[in-house]
Amino acid sequence: MSAFKDHFSGHAEIYRRARPTYPPALFAWLADAAPDRELAWDAGCGNGQATVALAAHFAHVLGTDPSANQIAAAEPHPNVEYRVEPAERCSLADASASLVTVAQALHWFELERFYAEVRRVLKPHGVIAAWTYADCTTGEAAIDRAKDRLYLDLTGPFWPPERRHVDSGYMTLPFPFVEIAAPSFAMVAHWTAEQFLAYLRTWSATQRYRQAIGVDPVDLIAPELRAAWGDPARVREVRWRFHLRVGRARGNREWKKPRFSALGPRV
């Protein structure tokens, strides 16, 4: 297996603090879709945002990531165990997981190997869900122009080629499972200008620009963005294009979850 593509270990702490959180309704819906609530595996968990959110619904959650720095910065939770390991080689037992999730990371995986692991670790009727969020907007044209100058003009050449899969909502990636129709979920944050600028610094392209040019590209658009934002204490809504793919292992097409099913133990 080739070395994993590590675009985030060098700024794991700011990544943990500055990334948006996922909609809580997403995790409630996934827990209801799973055959039980015993064990969920969050692959490529990074700082553990999705991992901890799953812990509100599952008795045990395993978060795995090949980056030791990301795991070291991950949020602890009594229901959560973190392991430093690649998604393509999971230490879970066969047929042990009710749900497998991948939050904003599927485009980095070696998919054939990862999907083989998913099929191995999922219980009968288990669910896999992968989601991604692409470009964002504040709804304020002047602010979005400054952000777009960073996204397109400055860091555009520095986005890894896998970024195209994020922009496509993962529809350009194979997904060899029986897909489940999912509702739409809104991914929204309420931030000040400095919080928004901190988020822009977590982009992989921002970090690659800094390494290549020796300048933080966010600093180049920050004055324009702050001026457009106005009062630095003002909180504005930031909204992302959120995309979700959900499926079950092939052969379970006719399965329907019982209306009243026993939930896994809660701790």
The name of the CATH architecture is 3-Layer(aba) Sandwich
Shape: elongated
* Tally of discrete structural domains: 1
Overall radius of gyration: 19 Å
CATH superfamily: Vaccinia Virus protein VP39
How helical, in percent, are the residues?
25-40%
Number of strands: 8
Mean pLDDT across all amino acids: 90
**Measured distance between first and last alpha carbons:** 37 Å
Helices, by number, come to: 10
Classification by helices and strands? alpha/beta
Order of helices and strands: HHEHEHEEHEHHEEHHHE
Main beta sheet strand tally, sense and closure: 8 strands, mixed
* Poorly predicted residue ranges: 1-12, 258-267
**Percent range for β-strand residues:** 15-25%
CATH structural class: Alpha Beta
Question: Could you name the CATH topology?
Answer: Rossmann fold
Question: What does it look like?
Answer:
The protein is an alpha/beta fold. The longest helix is centred in the middle third of the chain and has 14 residues, at 141-154. The chain is 34% helix and 22% strand. Strands 1, 2, 3, 4, 5, 6, 7 and 8 form an 8-stranded mixed beta sheet that branches. Helix 5 (111-121) links the parallel strand 4 and strand 5. The protein has one domain (9-248): Rossmann fold (3-Layer(aba) Sandwich). It is elongated and about 55 Å long. It contains 10 helices and 8 strands.
Please specify the SSE layout and strand pairing.
Layout: H1 12-18, H2 24-33, E1 39-43, H3 49-54, E2 60-65, H4 68-73, E3 80-84, E4 97-103, H5 111-121, E5 122-137, H6 141-154, H7 163-167, E6 178-179, E7 187-191, H8 193-200, H9 204-213, H10 217-229, E8 236-248
Parallel strand pairs: 1-2, 1-4, 2-3, 4-5
Antiparallel strand pairs: 5-8, 6-8, 7-8
Helix pairs in contact: 6-10, 8-10
